[in-house]
Every structure is written in structure tokens, then in C-alpha cells.
Amino acid sequence: MKTPVTPGATESIEELRAQTQPSSELGPQPSPPRPFGLLAEITYRCPLHCPYCSNPVDYPTSRPELTTEDWKQVFRQASDMGVMHVLFSGGEPLQRPDLPELVAAARNVDLYTNLITSGIGLTPKRAEQLKSAGLDSVQISFQGDAEPLADSIAGVAAHARKCEAAQLVRELGLSLTFNVVLHRQNLERLQRLIELAEELGAERLELANTQYYGWAFANKELLLPTRAQLEEAERIALAAKARLRGKMEVLYVLPDYYGDRPKPCMNGWGRRYLTINPLGDVLPCPTAGVIKSLRFDNIRDHSLHWIWADSEAFNRFRGTAWMPPPCSSCERREIDFGGCRCQAALLTGDPANTDPACALSPHRGNLTQIVNHVQESLEPNGTSESRALSAPGWTYRTNPVAPLA
Amino acid sequence: MLEADRTRATDMTTDFLDQPIDSGMRLRLSPKARVRTDKISGKPALLYPEGVLLLNPTGAAIVELCDGQHTVAEMVSKLAIRYNSPPDRLSVDVTQYLGRLRDRELLEVVPEAKDSP
């Protein structure tokens, strides 16, 4: 499971609405807004153990995984609500034997199907089945540019198999996105990572600085980069973006712990996207489970439309009426929507606070304290040279204790 | 772009991006993109990895002609008849629109069977 923000979708939808339609054609925004994308986390099981995973550290285990029929029903309902994209994710979606059947069901209701995978389990036979089912695009995550670093981050020997999976995707003529989550242990391999994406024939490259949720939040002391690393990475990413224009789309997800303004998380709460976790809980974003004060309704108890439009959880932070100062009077409140509710919960204890990723947040100090602590411990002389890359003592992601049947 | 980078940008797609849309080009949608009708607005929607483009009627008419068969000039002629517009004026709009789609990497140039004179 990669980071929860999907910048590509966000940019594309917003830009295109702005560019292709004069505002007079848009008319009043529907209330509630219509969803565009569904993140379908079909299982939490994963053969990888990445320490930056955004899955919950405390997996919910109150119910079994949704069945094939449950998901088919979800796709029909989502399509009727105007959803156009489904992103199959997890965990590792290839762990579900019924994945081709689920892809076919999503295609059957005209959804654009994206597979977000580690690549592990993508055998030639499986890939053929998925293509026949109508799979539109594949995103494979990489942890590094080569062994042994890549495998040490994944916690398992995976890198070589990922390269094979990427080749398979291209041989089948499917669109390939190369995704890498960036952090202190792999940022300095960025140039080589970009070259690997080129060698593998990727059409899109997502360079995603770690977002600190789930396992990543637990491991943040070992993942947070130095400012010098980030400056160099940004330079490399921008050069690649210019050089590869027309060959490969390069997306660089900014590290929001180091910025002054928060990301427009999910493009607003309950505004464009919804997530369904393996148990069938419907959430405004994949990490919203950290907000313990909210109860997320389950697709087995309610219709998707009711949950989206009427449930308490989806309405709690929708729009701008819930906002505290300084968001409530901020001219950017319809641009970044007060940032991320999960980040506010993690860093301030209250999801209704302004995201401390904003320099105007009264709780900004909570974030700068974390960042400064890392910087000071790494750069005692004010230089970026003293970093220990070997043997990080992080906590690898584990799978749910009780297998969900 | 840095000089060192420029020397590496030699493949056809990059050349395509650096030149204006030519009236003789035959364009087609990238295989990763497809068009469907948006159930909410009834408008045509162009879908591609993690993105959606809601098309206005003119945009949809242009996209429909990106089939690898029509040259840009032929597209303009057809649209001029359909919308009863002067081809000269239309040509500018169509070229701009195609340029925007190209910048999103949603179009491909169909290679010519033989070299143009």
C-alpha cells in the first residue's frame, strides 16, 4: 500500500475541469459532491513488509474480508454514483485469487481499472487473465533501484521479481506506472531510480515522498529525510520532468512535513474519493481509521450512496463549515481544505484542528519539533554528510494476526 | 532544459512534443486512454491512468476524430462542415486543443508508411 494521496488524479480532474469547461458550464456544484475515484483495498495481506506502509498498524479484524459478490455489488453502486476510476489496492491485491473476476466486474460497469501492486504474484498466466478481464493500467511499487537496498526496505527478496513483473506488463501492452516511496534511506538513489523506470518502459513515474501515516508514522524517525537530501531530490526530479516530457509523465509528491502549506488531502474530505477497506468499511481516505472519534459505516449494512451522502463520517469534515481558525477565514480554504484530517489527529490529537503541515497552524510546533529533532540528530555540524544508511532499526510492517477468511 | 539533457531527447515522441501540431499529422488516442459517457453529467469523459477529462461537445468531436485515419487538416474540414465555421478560425482552436491533449500525453502520432517529400 503506497501513500494515500493520488496527485495524478487530483491534478487531472481539477485542471481539466478548469481548462475544458468555462466556469459558466460547470454550474453550481452538486451537494454532496459526486465521487470520481474508488480505492478498493481488497485485502490487507501482503508479501512485503515495507516500513512506510500507510496501512493501519492496528488492523481492524471485526469482520471477514468482503466476498467477490460484495465487491461486484460495490462496483455497480459506485458506477451509478458517477465513480469512473477504481484503484485495486491493499495490501497486495494479487493475493486475492478472484482479482481477474473483480476487474472484469468493474470493467463491466465501465470503470477504468488501475491495479496498484507490488508486482509479487504477477505470473505470466495471471497477467494474461487480468488483461483479458480488461485491466487498463498497472502501477508497480519499487523500494529502491537495486538489491540489496530495495530488498532490505521491502523486508523480503522482491526487487528482481518486480522488474520481471514490469517487463510482463509492458509485453502485454498495458500502461505501466513506476511508483517509488521516497525517504531518507533511498532518496539518494533517485537518479538511478528514474533510469530504472525508463529502462522498464514506464509511461508514468510517481516519485512519492513518504506521507507519515500508519507504519510510516511509527517509523518516521528513520524515514524523515534531511533538507539537503530533499533539495537534491527536487532538483533531480525537475530535471527528469523536463527531460522526459512526452516519454514519461513524472509526478513528484511533495514532502509536506517540509513545506509551508498543507496538501489538498484527497482533494477535500468526501469530495472526490472514497476508500473501502478489506472489511467493507467505507472511509473518506485510506488512513481515516486513525480518527477514533468517527465510526465508519460498512457496505454490508448500508448502500454506498447513503454512506457517501448521509453518513456522519463523510459529512463531519465535508465543505468548510467545520473549520477552526485560521482555516475558517483563510483564502486557501477551498484550495487545500485545511490539509489532512488524519495528520491533524496524529500530530495534535484532534482531527478538527488545522493540519500542522500549514505554517499558520497553532500546532505547527508539534511538526517542526519532529523535523528538527531528526535534522539535529543527523546534522550535528550543520552539514548533511553524517547519516547512517546501514541497518536502520525500523519496524517492518506485519500482516493481520488472524488470517481473514 | 539543460544542454546535456537535450542531446538525449532524440526519440520521436519528444520531437513531436517540441514541434507545433502539423496539419498533415495523423493523430490517435494513446492506448491507455478511452472515452465513455459520464453518468452524472451525460458528457463524454476521457479516462486515463488516475485521471478524468470531462469533454465539452466540441472537445468530444475532436477526440472522436483522433482515430489515426484523419490528418489534422481533414479533421478541421470535417468540423468546419459540422459546425458551419470558417476553417481558418477553427484550425487555430483545434490545433490548440490537440496541443493540450498532447501535453497530457494522451495522443500519439501515427508513423507515416513512407517518408514525406
Can you give a write-up of this model?
The complex is a heterodimer of chains A (405) and B (117). Chain A is α/β, with parallel strands linked by helices and 405 residues long. Chain A has 15 helices and nine strands. In chain A, helix 3 (68-80) packs parallel to helix 4 and helix 4 (99-108) runs parallel beside helix 5. The longest helix of chain A is centred in the middle third of the chain and has 17 residues, at 227-243. The two termini of chain A are 20 Å apart. Chain B is an alpha+beta fold. Chain B has a three-stranded antiparallel beta sheet. A three-stranded antiparallel beta sheet of chain B has the order 2-3-4, with no helix packed on it. In chain B, helix 4 packs across helix 5. The longest helix of chain B has 17 residues, at 87-103. The radius of gyration of chain B is 15 Å and the shape is globular. Chain B starts with a helix and ends in an 8-residue tail after the last strand. The A-B interface holds A 6, 8-9, 11-13, 16-17, 19-21, 25, 30, 34, 36-37, 79-80, 82, 84-85, 87, 110, 112, 114, 136-137, 139, 173, 175, 177, 203-204, 239, 242-243, 245-247, 249 and B 1-2, 5, 8-9, 11, 13-14, 16-17, 31-32, 34, 36, 38-40, 45, 47-56, 59, 100, 104-105.
Please render the helix and strand layout as text:
The complex is a heterodimer of chains A (405) and B (117).
Chain A: H1 7-20, H2 23-26, E1 37-41, H3 68-80, E2 85-89, H4 99-108, E3 112-117, H5 124-133, E4 137-142, H6 149-154, H7 159-171, E5 175-182, H8 190-199, E6 204-209, H9 214-218, H10 220-223, H11 227-243, E7 249-253, E8 273-276, E9 282-283, H12 304-310, H13 312-316, H14 341-348, H15 364-378
Helix pairs in contact in A: 3-4, 4-5
Chain B: H1 3-6, H2 12-18, E1 26-29, E2 34-37, E3 44-48, E4 51-54, H3 57-64, E5 67-71, H4 72-83, H5 87-103, E6 107-109
Antiparallel strand pairs in B: 1-5, 1-6, 2-3, 3-4
